[in-house]
């Protein structure tokens, strides 16, 4: 069993109340999460464990001896938890930037997860992609040039392609693995890359924009991952 899998099992046993001789009333804090808290105390503890026990939980929490909340997986929404039943793991690997996971859920179809945080599901991705795309594009008359920051799954590109006034679409995604995984497991979304108006740039969007003339784009859509760890980088 790999190190990540062992870490996930440790977290799961403790969260299930099995880490203290079955006493669920006093839940200890997994050592991996203690290490995470020590390296980034302002973020509490952050631990991206693997899927265990047939479930994936995006957000879990517990308390240390001082009664201070400790967050596992996702510190962005304390007090909330959402779990999906996992039918099978379709893909799991680490890129140069993050852990990329795809699994088949029992009720939401395929799910894309980056560093332990759900990015999209087949069932409800449209609610996000449509809102983040059509609101800005419909807020100005006849947009012609569009930049997408992030958006490696291609869903935003697919929605932009519905606008006939758009003549050119640049997309800057830092992680090529996200693009390739999306093309394999989410082909309906990744079809957005096939639009002839799309020009793909793989790299840091900050550096990309430094070399772009001011006013080049009518619309810029930021579809990047949530900046949870900016302070610790």
List the helices and strands and how they pair.
Blueprint: H1 3-15, H2 31-39, E1 55-57, E2 60-63, E3 69-72, E4 83-94, E5 99-105, E6 110-114, E7 117-121, H3 125-137, E8 145-150, H4 155-160, E9 168-173, H5 176-185, H6 187-190, E10 198-202, H7 205-210, E11 219-223
Parallel strand pairs: 8-9, 8-11, 9-10
Antiparallel strand pairs: 1-4, 2-3, 4-5, 5-6, 6-7
GO biological process, one term: spermidine biosynthetic process
Organism: Gossypium raimondii
Active site: 223 (proton acceptor)
Distance between the termini: 29 Å
Side by side, the strands of the main sheet go 1-4-5-6-7
CATH topology of the domain at 124-224: the name is Rossmann fold
* Assembly type: single chain
> Beta-strand level of the residues, as a percent range?
25-35%
What is the compact description of this entry?
The chain has 233 residues and is of the alpha/beta class. Helix content is 26%, strand content 27%.
